[in-house]
Request: fold
Amino acid sequence: MSLPARFDLYAPIHKALRLFMTDTLQALGRLDLDDPQDFEAGLARLDALLDAAGSHLQHENDFIHPVIEARSSGTSTRIAAEHRDHLEAIAALRAQAAALRLQPEAAAAHRLYRQLAAFVAENFEHMDIEETRHNQALWAACRDDELQAIEGRILASIGPQEMSQWLRWLIPALMPGERAQLIAGLPPAAQAPVLASARSLLDDVAWAKLCRAMGQVGPVATPDLAGA
Ligand SMILES: [Fe+2]
Reply:
């Protein structure tokens, strides 16, 4: 008999982050140094990813690690040290991107691509430890409603601009049912614009599945997407 799934603070946001990271890495790999628009768009996406990665680890430090440490001291030490390394890696990536902006050369673009690939690889291992060992500690320390309250505090600390950036990556990263749950859980005024952006991010099949799943999670403020 399988146990009921516990509330997972990490899973959805890490799916979004993995998609954001791999998508940005691919964009850097095919960067066209002779096309100013493509070049600037690739570097802007890298800037946005580095902002998101820095902000994400800060949320974990501020809202999740204290809960783990209160119950099992020392459990988050390794991950907290890795967060400090990530901040250094983010600063190094920003410096290398700034140098590339000043001097767009293929060798420098490839160095930046490799440096981001190494950062992504390290983050994939890191997120797996959070989703296993940290979740184990959180599930031992907290009931699901307490974990949901932590998520509520994290969400309340995020401004509208950062929130719409996360939703841009969360929506395509999640399964159809998870997308529907996410959108149904938003404040009513936010649902229509988020659905409109979901329509532009998803293909026709994924959009049809989302609409079906939305029907199962209850009424939402559906936007007028005729012809979208
Ligand atoms: Fe982390």
User: Anything to note?
Assistant: The two ends are 45 Å apart (CA to CA). The CA atoms of residues 195 and 223 lie 7 Å apart. The mean pLDDT is 93. Residues 11-158 form a domain with the Four Helix Bundle (Hemerythrin (Met), subunit A) fold (CATH 1.20.120).
